[in-house]
């Protein structure tokens, strides 16, 4: 638990990206399909096609704290699939995708996550977004015709992960209740359905079990 507190606190440190460390990451949604992101402007949304981001790759011990949060999540779940973490500058979003050559990645804007924590009043909010994005990598992208089902799978894992990391149930749903929509969108379910699924994951973690239908690769890990 102490480690998680340290990670979340480090999310509020000032971040400066030296020009020499920057690189452009080009991301193309596989097969023309979309991938999941979250921003203050658009809430949870889908991104399609190809986009380029100015980023730096974050490593263990990075001052953003984000790779350490992701590693803690992976350790907690015994999920060993590599995920590259990139810190984006002034993108105001956080999202998960599979890039060229099948590289799994999460791209996050650290200052943006700080804003989310501030607006919701809990440092679990940023972690719940990161956990949702890790959840997409656990659940698998676009397994269903309906993107909404993929989003609920990621929400399930967000709830499961937050309980495992020590969040109470209300902290686990706070971000989605704050930023979610009252209605289904073309990409994401309404916030009541999403909060209910997060609670389901949280409750399953209490029971020490998980729903295997929520996972594409559980048997491989
Ligand atoms: Zn998502």
Summarize the structure.
Residues 1-21 form the signal peptide. Keywords: Signal. This protein is α+β, with helices and mostly antiparallel strands and 221 residues long.
Keywords:
about 220 residues; seven-stranded mixed sheet; single chain; alpha+beta
Structural summary, described in words:
The protein has 221 residues and is of the alpha+beta class. The protein has one domain. 43% of the residues lie in helices and 19% in strands. It is built from seven helices and seven strands. The chain has helices at residues 2-10, 66-77, 110-120, 124-139, 147-165, 169-179, 191-207, and strands at residues 23-28, 35-39, 43-47, 50-58, 84-88, 93-98, 104-108. It has a seven-stranded mixed sheet. A hairpin with a 3-residue loop joins strand 2 (35-39) and strand 3. Helix 1 packs antiparallel against helix 2 and helix 6 packs antiparallel against helix 7 (191-207). The longest helix has 19 residues, at 147-165. Zinc ion (ZN) binds at residues 36, 44, 132, 136, 151, 154. Residues 1-21 form the signal peptide. Keywords: Signal.
| Contiguous runs where pLDDT drops below 50 for at least 5 residues | 1-20
Q: Structural class from helices and strands?
A: alpha+beta
Please count the beta strands (DSSP E, at least 2 residues each).
Answer: 7
Major sheet: arrangement of strands: 1-4-5-7-6-2-3
Write the layout of secondary structure elements.
Elements (H helix, E strand, L loop, with lengths): L1 H9 L12 E6 L6 E5 L3 E5 L2 E9 L7 H12 L6 E5 L4 E6 L5 E5 L1 H11 L3 H16 L7 H19 L3 H11 L11 H17 L14
The structure holds zinc ion.
The site of zinc ion (ZN) has 6 residues, from helix 4 and helix 5.
Keywords: Signal
């Amino acid at each position: 638990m102490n480690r998680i507190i340290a990670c979340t606190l480090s999310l509020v440190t000032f971040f400066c990206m030296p020009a020499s460390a920057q690189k452009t990451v080009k991301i193309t949604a596989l097969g023309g399909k979309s991938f999941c992101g979250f921003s203050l402007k658009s809430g949870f949304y889908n991104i399609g096609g190809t986009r380029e981001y100015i980023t730096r790759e974050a490593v263990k011990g990075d001052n953003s704290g984000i790779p350490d949060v992701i590693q803690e999540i992976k350790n907690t779940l015994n999920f060993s699939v590599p995920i590259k973490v990139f810190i984006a500058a002034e993108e105001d979003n956080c999202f998960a995708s599979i890039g060229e050559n099948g590289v799994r990645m999460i791209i996050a804007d650290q200052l943006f996550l700080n804003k989310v924590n501030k607006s919701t009043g809990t440092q679990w909010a940023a972690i719940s977004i990161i956990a949702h994005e890790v959840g997409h990598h656990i659940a698998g992208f676009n397994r269903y015709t309906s993107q909404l089902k993929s989003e609920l799978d990621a929400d399930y894992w967000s709830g499961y992960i937050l309980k495992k990391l020590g969040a109470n149930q209300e902290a686990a749903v706070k971000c989605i209740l704050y930023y979610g929509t009252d209605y289904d969108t073309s990409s994401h379910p309404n916030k009541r359905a999403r909060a209910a699924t997060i609670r389901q994951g949280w409750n399953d973690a209490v029971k020490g079990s998980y729903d295997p239908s929520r996972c594409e690769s559980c048997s491989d890990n």
